[in-house]
Amino acid sequence: MKLTGVELRRIEMPLVAPFRTSFGTQTARDILLVRVETDEAVGWGECGALADPLYSPEYVDGAADVLRRFFVPALAAADHLDATAVGRVLAPFKGHRMAKAALEMAVLDAELRAQGRPLARELGAVRDRVPCGVSVGIMGSVGELLDTVGGYLDAGYVRIKLKIQPGWDVEPVRAVRERFGDDVLLQVDANTAYTLADARHLARLDPFGLLLIEQPLDEEDVLGHAELAKRLATPVCLDESIVSAKSAADAIALGACQVVNIKPGRVGGYLEARRVHDVCAANGVPVWCGGMLESGLGRAANVALAALPGFTLPGDTSASDRYYRTDIIEPFVLSGGHLDVPAGPGIGVDPVPELLAEVTTATERVAC
Ligand SMILES: CSCC[C@@H](NC(=O)CCC(=O)O)C(=O)O
Ligand SMILES: [Mg+2]
């Protein structure tokens, strides 16, 4: 393939309700899309970076800048273009994994569309539908939380994840258990809000039979997670700490995690996400697919990834309407607690032009 053009597009997607985590509250998503044009096909990528560098060091304006000034020109100068070339060409640049992932996703989508191959098959999917969990934000009251959780369970979600932070952890978990019983698959996500000094407090979650506690400590505190894991009965899952297959192998070897949340953007792309999956599978560590409130484009690729054999836990691959009144693609609709894996070439979905236009706030072509 030859790169003939790249478009960076920003879309503003209002959320159906505020989504509060330990690091802030989202009311809309400012998403960067990458559209790659080649001599054989067009491909779409989505960057998971948030507007502010609060989940990770990346933020959407920075991702657009590094793509515009460094990544797209480097790729345009390459003498061979395919998805594996993207990682190789961008390797000299440090960090910016979500920006790299968006460009790789677009090239991978174009390459697979040209070949007529679905992404799921390319990655090694073994399922044609995946069970879906849902991430529930911090709420103003336990009553509001219980109403929200009840609504998601009625909708068919097979797993509930509660965002927690100091002052909002044991009580909401206890309330959900008391209201909905011990059989509901339940986990929590702290987004690095605790320290090892909170170990005794976090052990108060152990009686509730949680699937896991996600990223309780700072993303760089791998040894702290290993020490915490010794003091908790609840399995420790890492998210922000896992930025590559190598970091996953190291964290597992140190006993820092018993479960891994795989987010393709956080690790630099879907090809690296498969390598993280493979490392975890080789170590008997279950994985699940995390989310960054993606539009239907990123959601489609995540659902394909979630169909790989090692994804044995429901992911944050919720239906489109969990976050958006209107998606930019034909929406993903939950059926029996599952989403169907797209079967078309590439990511298997396309933006609906008029819906995309409605949410577009900026487009720019990057010289190739
Ligand atoms: C705005 S919070 C994004 C990161 C967060 N993501 C979720 O909680 C799931 C979001 C989703 O369902 O896409 C996580 O740390 O796992
Ligand atoms: Mg998380």
TrEMBL record:
Cofactor: a divalent metal cation
Matching SMART domains: MR_MLE
A family per Pfam: MR_MLE_N
Domain Mandelate racemase/muconate lactonizing enzyme C-terminal: 142-235
Gene Ontology MF: a single term: racemase and epimerase activity
Keywords for the protein's UniProt record, in alphabetical order: Lyase, Magnesium, Metal-binding
EC numbers for this chain: 4.2.1.113
Enzyme class: lyase
A biological-process GO annotation: menaquinone biosynthetic process
This protein's record includes keyword Membrane: no
PANTHER family: O-SUCCINYLBENZOATE SYNTHASE (PTHR48073:SF5), O-SUCCINYLBENZOATE SYNTHASE-RELATED (PTHR48073)
NCBIfam families, A to Z: menC_lowGC_arch
Protein name per Swiss-Prot or TrEMBL: o-succinylbenzoate synthase
Protein's organism: Amycolatopsis methanolica 239
Gene: menC
